[in-house]
Amino acid sequence: MKRWIPLILFAVLAGFLYVGLYLNPREVPSPFIGKPAPKFVLPVIGQPGTTFSPEQAKGKVWLLNIWAPWCVSCRAEHPFLMQLAQSGISIYGLNWKDKDREAEALLNQKGSPYIVTVDDLDGRVGIDFGVTGTPETFVIDQAGIIRMKHIGPIDEAVWKKKFEPLLDKLEKTT
Predict the structure, then answer these.
(1) Where are the domains of the chain?
(2) Is pTM, for the whole model, over 0.70?
(3) Tens of pLDDT along the chain (174 residues)?
(4) In the CATH scheme, what architecture does the domain 32-172 have?
(5) Would you give the DSSP letter of residue 161?
(6) Nearest 5 degrees, angle CA 23-CA 169-CA 61?
């Protein structure tokens, strides 16, 4: 029996490696799915003295897009986010770790797809959401529950495959 142990261990390891070949490394399961969005109050960029909290968006389905001016992928997804905003999608921005304070100027120059953009200078709110990098986008439902986390830029293909079906489903539950 002892001589079969190495063969059994090899078969198990080979099985794990085979399954791993078909996993998407961008699909990191989030422990926050199905749980309330973390609470925060952050200053709104370009509106001194104004703050935003997720409580202000309760009652509607919305996206929280975590981005940064220094993020190349964020700049690449920006035109598509502009299209989404123009079509009526509610997008809120969280400017993450913008040490050079470039967000306001960039949004003024390129246009803003966000209803509001808040400033998470020290990155604590991003950490509360489990952010590992930018861009990341969360779908939050009417009750403030996180329904999806997407890592990476959003383009038309990703939107049609992942976001649109979920948003249609959530909008029907109102």
Answers:
(1) 32-172
(2) yes
(3) 678 887 787 777 777 777 766 655 555 566 789 999 999 999 999 999 999 999 999 999 999 999 999 999 999 999 999 999 999 999 999 999 998 889 999 999 999 999 999 999 999 999 999 998 999 999 999 999 999 999 999 999 999 999 999 999 998 875
(4) 3-Layer(aba) Sandwich (3.40)
(5) I
(6) 100
